[in-house]
């Protein structure tokens, strides 16, 4: 009997891992444990466009918050060679290698277990080799078809928002876990390689070249970007020496002139609005023929659905309006989203609601003859009310996230339609000058960091002296919207407030 009990205890210890804890405890969590956080990445990628695959390596400078046997990071659809992984503490000469590793596809995490506890402090985790597929699902690091002088070719491009950086390299793929990124690419010599920052140097070796880029400022993993292909471009420069380029299909550089003009003018408007200069030395915009969204605000390298960026002399006014709106939207994200990022996807409205309102603000200043505020009232507000009254669509601005798959659901019409309506109300409540001054103060306070909706309310209250949180929080926390009914008699007016949450026979039904 005693032997049996001893055997059971031994088996239990083995199943829990050698050091008293099982990696299973890291599973089915919404977010990564904060015992290890990234400070900087040195990322190397080598795409193989012909075989739809890529390989890479990454060195991550980590801060160990408390001594631990485990390092838990995000990784999805990657093959990580475990014998090429090691950790070196700062100031230490001993290179530690994990004794075990686990990949949990459902949770999109990779767990490393070390025999010796990693000490509190900083160190470098080196992952010397991993591989993945350049798929065609338009997420992560993928391959897109495009035309080069009448020949069908392939480009490699990234789309990391919201949780797809982990499909390209092992990382801490949460918006608040900001770090710097130094990207190096090995690509065919005849192709152009773009990333968030300007190139630092190029080294050619026969048919291949290695392109190294300047290190980025601190930013979230979902904003890292890479584009590899053949392009023409048009270029301009702002008054404070920011180089702005629009990359176009080969032979169609003139199609980028309209977007270049809108981009340069938008930067000027936002720099004045936030009273903070655009913080990178360059801004590139490039159209991707096969693209998941309308556009993506990657810091310094904005990617667009090609149909929404390029404007020809023959393009209809509607095309110009769409292009101007989406360019202004993505450029506003360089402040609202990139410089200050929501702490978690629950507060994605801090990105998208403000960017949608700011795009109208900027386009109105660039093209006052378009009367875009009337269009905003006629389309965004009206459609936002309609969507918000549908129980199947309506949800609070502050979205509850129970699983990473809920993040995609949160990026819906409510955020993009109701979101800017809420911002417009806030603008009216504070007044134009006070709103602008308060938003500038908020961006300055949380620059290079993350914020929540509560942080925004607090910052606006300090700047304005008004109870912003008490007034506005009901609009972000509740589903639907209030409607007012009035019963009028000869002597009295009786007012009742209802909450609209359904549409019947094309009419709002509130109750």
UniProtKB/TrEMBL annotation:
Q: Which residues form the Peptidase M1 membrane alanine aminopeptidase domain?
A: 258-475
Instruction: Give the protein's cofactors.
Output: Zn(2+)
Cellular component (GO) terms are: cytoplasm; extracellular space; membrane
- Name the active site residues: 330 (proton acceptor)
Lineage top rank: taxon:
Eukaryota
Q: Which residues bind Zn(2+)?
A: 329, 333, 352
Q: Which InterPro entries match?
A: Aminopeptidase_N-like_N (IPR045357), Aminopeptidase_N-like_N_sf (IPR042097), M1_APN-typ (IPR034016), Peptidase_M1 (IPR001930), Peptidase_M1_aminopeptidases (IPR050344), Peptidase_M1_dom (IPR014782), Peptidase_M4/M1_CTD_sf (IPR027268)
| Residues annotated as site: Transition state stabilizer | 416
Q: Name one GO molecular function term.
A: peptide binding
Please list the residue ranges annotated as the Aminopeptidase N-like N-terminal domain: 37-223
* Comment on bound cofactor: Binds 1 zinc ion per subunit.
Could you say which residues form the signal peptide?
A: 1-20
Q: Name one GO biological process term.
A: peptide catabolic process
Q: Which family does it belong to?
A: Belongs to the peptidase M1 family.
Name the record gives this protein: Aminopeptidase N
């Amino acid at each position: 009997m005693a032997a049996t009990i001893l055997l059971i205890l031994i088996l239990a210890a083995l199943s829990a891992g050698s050091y008293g804890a099982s990696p299973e405890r890291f599973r089915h969590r919404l977010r990564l444990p904060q015992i290890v956080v990234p400070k900087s990445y040195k990322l190397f990628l080598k795409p193989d466009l012909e075989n739809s695959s890529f390989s890479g390596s990454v060195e991550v400078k980590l801060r160990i918050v408390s001594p631990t046997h485990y390092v838990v990071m995000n990784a999805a659809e990657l093959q990580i060679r475990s014998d090429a992984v090691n950790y070196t503490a700062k100031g230490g000469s001993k290179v530690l290698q994990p004794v075990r590793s686990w990949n949990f596809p459902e949770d999109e995490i990779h767990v490393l277990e070390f025999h010796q506890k990693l000490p509190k402090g900083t160190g470098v985790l080196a992952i010397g080799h991993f591989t993945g597929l350049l798929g065609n699902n338009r997420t992560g690091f993928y391959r897109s078809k495009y035309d080069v002088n009448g020949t069908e070719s392939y480009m490699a491009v990234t789309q990391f928002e919201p949780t797809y950086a982990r499909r390209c390299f092992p990382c801490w793929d949460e918006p608040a876990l900001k770090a710097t990124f130094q990207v190096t690419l090995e690509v065919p010599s005849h192709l152009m390689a773009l990333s968030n920052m300007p190139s630092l140097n190029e080294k050619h070796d026969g048919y291949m070249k290695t392109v190294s880029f300047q290190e980025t400022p601190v930013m979230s993993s979902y904003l890292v970007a890479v584009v590899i292909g053949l392009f023409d471009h048009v270029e301009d420069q702002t008054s404070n020496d920011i180089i702005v380029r629009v990359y176009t299909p080969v032979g169609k550089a003139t199609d980028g002139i309209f977007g270049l003009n809108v981009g340069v003018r938008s930067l000027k408007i936002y720099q004045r609005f936030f009273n903070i200069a655009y913080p990178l030395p360059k801004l590139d915009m490039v159209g991707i023929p096969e693209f998941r969204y309308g556009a993506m605000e990657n810091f310094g390298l904005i990617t667009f659905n090609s149909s929404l960026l390029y404007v020809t002399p023959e393009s209809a006014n509607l095309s110009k309006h769409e292009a101007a709106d989406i360019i202004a939207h993505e450029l506003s994200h360089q402040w609202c989203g990139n410089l200050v990022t929501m702490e978690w996807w629950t507060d994605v409205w801090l990105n998208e609601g403000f960017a949608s309102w700011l795009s109208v603000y900027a386009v109105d200043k660039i093209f006052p003859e378009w009367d875009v505020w009337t269009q905003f009232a006629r389309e965004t507000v009206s459609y936002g009310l309609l969507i918000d009254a549908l129980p199947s669509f309506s949800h609070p601005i502050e979205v509850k996230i129970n699983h990473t798959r809920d993040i995609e659901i949160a990026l819906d019409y409510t955020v993009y339609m109701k979101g800017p309506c809420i911002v417009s109300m806030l603008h009216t409540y504070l007044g134009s000058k006070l709103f602008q001054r308060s938003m500038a103060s908020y961006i300055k306070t949380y620059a290079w960091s993350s914020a929540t909706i509560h942080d925004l309310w607090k910052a606006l209250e300090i700047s304005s002296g008004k109870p912003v949180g008490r007034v506005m929080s009901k609009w972000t926390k509740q589903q639907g919207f209030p409607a007012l009914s009035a019963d009028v008699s000869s002597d009295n007016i009786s007012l009742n407030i209802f909450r609209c949450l359904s549409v019947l026979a094309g009419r709002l039904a509130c109750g």
